[in-house]
Amino acid sequence: MLDKTDTHLEALLRRRKPGYSLEAPFYTDPDIFASDLDLIFGRHWIYVGVEPDVAEPGDAMVIDIGKTSVIITRNDDNEVRAFHNVCRHRGARVLQDYKTSVGNLVCRYHAWTYDLDGKLLFAEHMGKDFDAGCHGLKPVHIRSLEGLLFICLSDDPPADFDDMAARMAPYLAPHDLKNAKVAFESELIEPGNWKLVMENNRECYHCAGNHPELTVPLFAYGFGFAPEELDDMGRLEAQRYADLVKASHGEWESCGFPSQMIEHLDDMVTGFRTERLPLDGAGESHTGDTRAACRKLLGAINDPRHGALHFWTQPNSWHHFMSDHVVTFSAIPLDAERTLVRTKWLVHKDAVEGVDYDIANLTAVWQATNVQDAELVGLCQEGARSPAYEPGPYSPHTEMLVEKFCNWYVGRMRAQGAR
Ligand code: FES
Ligand SMILES: [Fe+2]
């Protein structure tokens, strides 16, 4: 029987049982949620959006994480920059809208005006001794990984982002995300703790029973199975899939699409995983008919049959890069029991809606899948609130990556000196 008497974070982290889901307070306790925001979301690289969100100089996007609000903008030199969304006068939010386009960043309270590099250009009535040079917007660390934008709220961001970026750039580059556009985006508030959202994303054990749309392009044996439970037919199918992955990797790699799995989910501070996987049916895309949803392919890709590149980062993102479109997801914690999932669908920037692609067809699979996942996460959240809840065992064949997510989380919390 689990000793549930000491619910201090340090004790909970110390007694975490490997191979099992976390104890209930990790999913429900507002104090642990506050520690998560501070130690995980305040000190690691957080995926927040894509360069095409701020495609032109003056485009700006606001990202809120806990009490922190960040402006991401593109300056006149075409560089993406990030600043705290806090006016250096009396602290007003400078930008209120999620996305906008500006000449300069003007605080509406007293019209202090900053340029797109955060420099204070104008502050009326401040007298001759006022030093505008000391009152620029505070910068936030930001990195673009082939167009995927990550911010770090810490003064001292994890340095191994560079290692991840060096390994990942060749995988992502062929899709040329910087020259794509956001064709559609959705916001969904999932009724569960952010860790339940991530755990749900890190396995496909639940897919066959819950995702009729998503399982059309996916292979039944693509996400693990217990070998001893397979009958002859199952064994044959599993072998066929393994052979297909091997042959596909060889073919794709020979034409410049790195495909082999790289997995550092719990042994790097900036944990990540990637692999390019074949798709079923026509083999082109995550769509209802498995065919490309956009006629104009990304970058210089000239064949839609390049499967789907999965890319995950700890603690809060997953992405699917296909030949014709990219779907990208960020999970932003709102409180202990609610998480915002932002999904963006990107196509080539020159693709024309209604001619090259249809939004409903482009987004159908993941719109449906997100809603199904939100419901599943809600079911677990309700369970975690019950006195009857206790951590349950992960499948060693289909939930290894959920385990790695939890290992990463527990390890990082401990490393940050969680109390
Ligand atoms: S608070 Fe922004 S100008 Fe006064
Ligand atoms: Fe799912």
From TrEMBL:
<keyword id="KW-0479">Metal-binding</keyword>
<protein>
    <submittedName>
        <fullName>Iron-sulfur cluster-binding protein 1</fullName>
    </submittedName>
</protein>
<dbReference type="GO" id="GO:0051537">
    <property type="term" value="F:2 iron, 2 sulfur cluster binding"/>
</dbReference>
<dbReference type="GO" id="GO:0005506">
    <property type="term" value="F:iron ion binding"/>
</dbReference>
<dbReference type="InterPro" id="IPR017941">
    <property type="entry name" value="Rieske_2Fe-2S"/>
</dbReference>
<dbReference type="Pfam" id="PF00355">
    <property type="entry name" value="Rieske"/>
</dbReference>
<keyword id="KW-0001">2Fe-2S</keyword>
<dbReference type="InterPro" id="IPR001663">
    <property type="entry name" value="Rng_hydr_dOase-A"/>
</dbReference>
<dbReference type="InterPro" id="IPR015879">
    <property type="entry name" value="Ring_hydroxy_dOase_asu_C_dom"/>
</dbReference>
<keyword id="KW-0560">Oxidoreductase</keyword>
<keyword id="KW-0411">Iron-sulfur</keyword>
<feature type="domain" description="Rieske">
    <location>
        <begin position="47"/>
        <end position="151"/>
    </location>
</feature>
<dbReference type="InterPro" id="IPR036922">
    <property type="entry name" value="Rieske_2Fe-2S_sf"/>
</dbReference>
<keyword id="KW-0408">Iron</keyword>
<dbReference type="Pfam" id="PF00848">
    <property type="entry name" value="Ring_hydroxyl_A"/>
</dbReference>
<dbReference type="GO" id="GO:0016491">
    <property type="term" value="F:oxidoreductase activity"/>
</dbReference>
